[in-house]
Amino acid sequence: MAVDTWDGLTGHDPWEGLTGHDRHAACLVAARAGNRKALDVLVADLTPLVWHVTRSQGLDKVHAEDVVQTVWLALLRHLDRLQQPKALAAWLIVTARREAQRAKTTGFDRETPVAAEDLVDIPTQVDGPEQHALRDDRDRRLWAAFKQLTDRCQKLLTLTVLSGRAQYDAVAEALEMPRGSIGPTRGRCLTSLRELLDVEGGPQ
Amino acid sequence: MSSADGNEFDEAGVDMDNLTEQDLLLLAELDVLFDKVDPVPADLVERVQFAIALEDLDVEVARWERAEELAGVRGAGPNTVTFTVEDLTIMVSFAPAGAGYRFDGWLVPGGPHTVEVRVAGHSSTTAEADEGGRFAVDDVPKGTTQLVVHLANGTGSRPRTIVTPTLML
Fold first, then answer.
1. Mean pLDDT of all residues in B134-150
2. Which of residues 26-45 of A touch B (CB under 8 A)?
3. Which residue of B has its CA nearest to A44?
4. Hey, which end of chain B has fewer CB within 10 Å, N or C?
5. How many Cα atoms within 13 Å fall on the side-chain side of residue A23?
6. Is A161 on the interface with B (CB under 8 A)?
């Protein structure tokens, strides 16, 4: 087992007090140096990202859980290969999408004749099962408004939020959009969301 | 590093295109909402952390080829799961035995590989496969379970280790 060099030297974790991208970069550097706790922190912080990317590819929960595990296991031997710590979120997003697609083509899609990706484009079912999870009125309205956004807007905002908001490169790569158009497009998505939320009624 | 006025974005060389306070609040609200709508399964983080707590991190991942009805592994009958990595297939049948399970497995192509069964909260059990790739492990405790296959070294080749995602037994 490798030595936790960082802990030994400084007495505290190198990611302590950091947030978002800085935190993940510090964890990745520490993980490369053999700090296992840093890996656990990354898993705890970024599993929601991997989970939602996987689910957005149309996988059910059981298969999505496998894919999430596969993605993290695959990261292990890539730890040293990521060009820069910043690339971590992008790598996780791209790998999760690829693994989800692979899971869908090896048996899973026999059970889902409709391409699962197309389902995202079907207009909102305002009282879908997820509604039950939302007891709060504000949440319900926001979710209803969000689901009326275009598929692209939904994905863009989801990835923006889950990858720590700062990582345009990750989001741009995952959506195959030019990096420069992420900002303006996201601005439009947020404006649409706000308008739709107005239509849903109630105070903002 | 990141200053109080949110310049972590600038520091990362990323222009946030003048997101307003209102935008950031709405994004934060969405963040909370996503987890309410489709929460990450409660024990998933823990299971991933168990799965990656390996001695050697230079591992190849075998993917689960799920049989149609096997979702979640329930029921009392014997079940078989199959994992594949490019040039190896791992098949394992498990049947309830005593307080846990008995594993009967088959590695294709065969060889005197070492199979390690890791169960969360227990020490791992190791079995040697025979020349035909068959192996058996008795008394596997119930719980989050992972297989680690250490491939027998061909002459001159690097040692290889294959790991599977976890099974919930």
1. 94
2. 36, 39-40, 43-44
3. B45
4. N
5. 15
6. yes
Cα distance from A177 to chain B (closest Cα, Å)? 16
**Structure tokens of B32?**
């909370």
Give pairs for B31-37: CB < 8 Å, separation 24+. Answer: B31/A161, B31/A162, B33/A134, B33/A139, B33/A142, B33/A143, B33/A146, B34/A48, B34/A52, B34/A158, B34/A161, B34/A162, B35/A48, B36/A133, B36/A134, B36/A139, B37/A130, B37/A133, B37/A134, B37/A143
Q: How far apart are CA A138 and CA A145, in angstroms?
A: 11
Structure tokens at A203: 């105070």
CA distance linking residue B51 with residue B57, whole number of Å: 11
The answer on pLDDT for A102 being more than 50 is: yes
Q: What is the mean pLDDT of residues B9-30?
A: 61
- Characterize the bridge pairing of strands B134-140 and B60-61: unpaired
Mean of per-residue pLDDT scores for chain A: 77
User: How far apart (Å, rounded) are the C-alpha atoms in residues A15 and B2?
Assistant: 12
End-to-end CA distance of chain B: 45
**Cα–Cα dist B110/B117, whole Å:** 18
User: ∠ at Cα B87 (B95, B108), nearest 5°?
Assistant: 40
